[in-house]
Amino acid sequence: IVNVGKRFMEDDAEVVFADPCTFTSFVSANNSDEIGNYKISDDFALLKKSLERKLAEYNETNAIMNLVLFEQAVRHVTRITRILMFPGGNALLVGVGGSGKQSLSKLAAHICNYQTSQISVTSDYSVNDLKEHLRDLYRKAGVKPGEPLVFLLTDSQITDERFLVYINDLLSSGRIPDLFSKEDYDGIFASIR
């Protein structure tokens, strides 16, 4: 194994140690929309063109996002896409408000063919409203036909500190105690069967 590694390193050292080194599974030379093998994307122009095409697709079916896909934004989208494609993948995006974290996440979700869900916080939005939203998300994701989802939550939407308990349970194990009643579980299990 060591010899194979050394040979690979000697042959492709420039590619392996290129900075920045970007890997994607959604860019292909034949402009296919299918998500394929995870491979290095050394052609930035092709990567940007592919993302611009995906952004145009997103804008056809959703509210229009006027994004400028500069190099750093392109690299962030590829990272977010990689994280979302992992089973149970989740990310905490930290940055200045208005820097595009939500927009890039929505684009990455679209690339992965995932639906995006976000809560609409009002002045009377309570823990029970959050639990109801989470119940709906769990039903959409888990009951036939289950669909992959991205749940976007910003710091301004956390109006009650108790929200963090449910978000922590969601991220750590996926199991939120007392989210469903026994009757709800019976209905869910029947629909899954």
Q: How far apart are the first and last residues' alpha carbons, in Å?
A: 46 Å
**Domain module tally:** 2
Order of neighbouring strands in the sheet with most strands: 1-2
Q: Report low-confidence residues grouped into runs of 5 or more.
A: 1-5
The H-and-E topology, N to C, reads as HEEHHHEHEHH
Number of strands: 4
**Major beta sheet summary:** 2 strands, antiparallel
Mean pLDDT score? 85
**How big is the Rg?**
20 Å
Coarse morphology: globular
Give your account of this protein's structure.
- It comes from Spumella elongata.
- Residues 65-193 form the Dynein heavy chain AAA module D4 domain.
- 50% of the residues lie in helices and 6% in strands.
- The N and C termini lie far apart (46 Å).
- It has a two-stranded antiparallel sheet with strand order 1-2.
- It has two domains: 1-113, no CATH class; 114-192, P-loop containing nucleotide triphosphate hydrolases (Rossmann fold, 3-Layer(aba) Sandwich).
- α3 (71-85) crosses α4.
- With 193 residues, it is mostly helical.
- α5 (127-142) links the parallel β3 and β4.
- It has helices spanning 2-16, 44-61, 71-85, 101-111, 127-142, 163-172, 182-192, and strands at 23-24, 39-40, 115-118, 149-152.
- It is globular, with a radius of gyration of 20 Å.
- The model is unreliable at 1-5 (pLDDT under 50).
